Amino acid sequence: MIEITETWIDSLAPNSAAIKNGRDLNKKGKFTGLHRSEDGQVLFGECQGSGKTPYMPSADFVTPDKPVMRCSCPSRQFPCKHVLGLLYAYAEGKPFTAAQIPDDLAAKREKAEKREEKKAKEAAAGTPAKPKKTNKAALKKKILAQLEGLELLEKLTHSLIRRGLGTLDAKELKAVQEHVKQMGSHYLSGAQIQLRKLHLLLSAKEDREDAYSRAAEQLAVIHAFIKKGRAHLDARLEDPELAPDHESTIEEWLGHAWQLTELKEAGLAGSDAELIQLSFISYDDVSRQEFVDCGYWMQMDTGEIHFTVQYRPYRAAKLMREDDSFFEVAAVPELYRYPGDLNRRVRYESFASRPLTESDMGRIRRHAAASFAEVVKKVKNQLKNPLGDPNPVVLLRAENIVTDSNGRIFIADAQGETLELRDVLADGTVHLLKYLAEEHLRDVALLGMFNHEMRSGRLVVQPLSIINERELVRLLY
Description:
Blueprint: H1 6-12, H2 16-27, E1 31-36, E2 42-47, E3 58-60, E4 68-70, H3 81-92, E5 97-98, H4 103-124, H5 136-163, H6 170-185, H7 189-202, H8 208-238, H9 250-253, H10 260-265, E6 269-285, E7 290-299, E8 305-313, E9 329-337, E10 346-347, E11 352-354, H11 358-366, H12 372-383, E12 393-403, E13 409-412, E14 418-421, E15 442-452, E16 459-467, E17 472-474
Parallel strand pairs: 1-5, 14-16
Antiparallel strand pairs: 1-2, 2-3, 3-4, 6-7, 6-9, 7-8, 9-10, 9-11, 12-13, 12-15, 13-14, 15-16, 16-17
């Protein structure tokens, strides 16, 4: 069985309320029985609910990195608060008596074991998994529909530009909204997001000058998307296999949702990776109509900064697991990488955890970029691409964090190059630096999010985390 810690249990919970409720069940003594199987692979118990019959939560660790959670309660959340409470009781060290697995749970385990045995026999016999067949006729029809959608989008943007942003009235804004819906009919979910973002900017009531500037930038992004999207789709039509692009992010911009099997077939999967989360951000993205949970992680062997992201649509948010901060080291058997730039999106299906050590602090610091000039060059190259992430995140080696006579805060590298620290996100962090001790302001690694300010033309950085020799201080977590 893997080591069960409270941090690991928290990472399983669907949301913060489930964490609280699970902990409360344990604290209030709602478990009338706590048991484990003779081999120690299964934890199970009885938890008093609102009815006469107690609920029967269980956690099966026959496959340690893919535990199976079950409960007899009717909750649609997974795992439910009863399973979480059972795990919290185990992590706390409460006694679990050895007992025979209940018959209904044993029957479910037996069925699952037979399925796994069948898969193992097929694998041993060399029976290849049936490749997913692509319906080329349907895919070609979809691509043609996407091209039509891009043409509609282009006509709309040209109309808006000819009319002038400052003269748009309610009729034009309604037309933009209607086109948002049409993009969905043309399989262009990425275009929906970008057009909805434009509509929000044009509908802003306050600071109109800033809104128009941002709307002009957004129109430039949409124009680049139309141009690159059309070229990409035309190229796919000329390809007999209609193969997707595994190198750039254009597929995601066009609305493609990558499957893990696709990433693996494209050589974008690696084994035995260790990840450390350096920062975590959760926010409401109105243009996507989703809540977004985003974690920035370092891959320990390469020093690359990746990100994980979970989108929770408004309608389903209550039923989905809310991602959260993770404060240990995640050992991932198989890591999937998405096409991308400086920060690639990654995914994994299972992981084991271990505590963060001072040795890990040293490994993180060794991967920090020592030359700001080299980092700025890479960031600017990415920002030249209108479809690139406008806010790349980089780990920098800062010799000093200093404040000038005007109250502006800078970080300096060993060569004396400086970068100004400014807030990029709505959740500011720069003001928190004044509360840090001297040991967090000299010879540290700083995880920073870059932003190009249009008015000043300068690159600025928002600090997300600071790492010294002994600890990781997360300003956003």
